[in-house]
Amino acid sequence: MTDPNRDIAPALSVRDLRKTYDNKVEALKGVSLDVAPGDFFALLGPNGAGKSTLIGIVSSLVNLSAGSVQVFGTDLRTDRGAAMRMIGLVPQELNFNMFEKPLDILVNYAGFYGVPREEALQRAEVELKRAQLWEKATLMSRTLSGGMKRRLMIARAMMTRPRLLILDEPTAGVDIEIRRGMWKTLKEINAAGTTIILTTHYLEEAESLCRNLAIIDRGHIVEQGPMKALLAKLDVEGFLFDIDGHLPAQLPAIEGTTLLAEDDHTLDVEMPRAMDLNRVFAALGDAGIRVRSMRTKSNRLEELFVRLTGDNAPGQAAAQPEKAA
């Protein structure tokens, strides 16, 4: 009999999850979090924070030491097979046969999960077209570009029609244009009803895609909640002002703000969020400094991350795989 509570259960529910490796390293120290059905959820943290360990446990690649994991109400320990059938995983590493064709990779993968070949062929066409790889379907996968190989990984994971898609650094090592194309694909997958959990070092990626997030550091969740609510906690904003002419050697003093000259024509301004920008403009005008245009200085999520985790800003090691710690 189907449990009616499963219809309203979180897509992922983790309770007091702990992992201690054989070398006595505690990778997870009591992690608890919920991911709602249909959510686009970011899991952030520096290298060694425990992200990959957490993802490994949820996807049954790593054994937990204590705690519980449920996927849409199905317990991972008591009904592993049923839980795994609801999960699609896109790992950091490219782990398909480079001498196979994309079409064969997808069809064979679906076959491992019991999808009949005719149905698998139909699904493969849909997924390869969504990944913009249909024209490459019968070429050797080793001939694909780095971005194409990443999209192929996502297409393969979607062949089982997972309810929960987990992406571990899916855009690592690809350029920004390819990354934004992948963002579009992921947004379409999420809009169609698939819950997505994303781990990433590219913080603008999380801010652009995700509605909720958890930040993990040294095996603990240090913050979690709606993206907008967490960003609102920042009480300082940074701007870059483009200046007409040259900045004077002596910058004016504006109470509550920090002014730095990036170059002769660019002023770096940090100010409290509650401060009226007009006050800053007026003070600059009194000093003979005319602002031609302005832009936000940095990613607000990165500011929050640095504040919560100290000096372990992930952007410093964006393309490096996480160590199990």
Overall 3D form: globular
Helix share bin: 25-40%
Q: Which CATH architecture of the largest domain?
A: 3-Layer(aba) Sandwich
Main beta-sheet annotation: 6 strands, mixed
Question: Could you tell me the strand content as a percent range?
Answer: 25-35%
Please trace the helix and strand order, writing H or E for each element: EEEHEEHEHHHEHEHEEHEEEHEH
Let me know the average pLDDT: 88
Remind me, CATH topology of the largest domain? Answer: Rossmann fold
Number of helices: 10
DSSP E strands, number: 14
Give the C-level CATH assignment of the largest domain. Alpha Beta
- Stretches where pLDDT is under 50 for at least 5 consecutive residues are 1-6, 312-325
- Summing up helix and strand content along with how strands pair, one would put the structural category as alpha/beta
Give Rg in angstroms: 23 Å
State the end-to-end distance.
41 Å
| Total discrete domains | 2
Strands side by side in the biggest sheet: 6-7-8-3-9-10
* CATH homologous superfamily (4th level) name of the largest domain: P-loop containing nucleotide triphosphate hydrolases
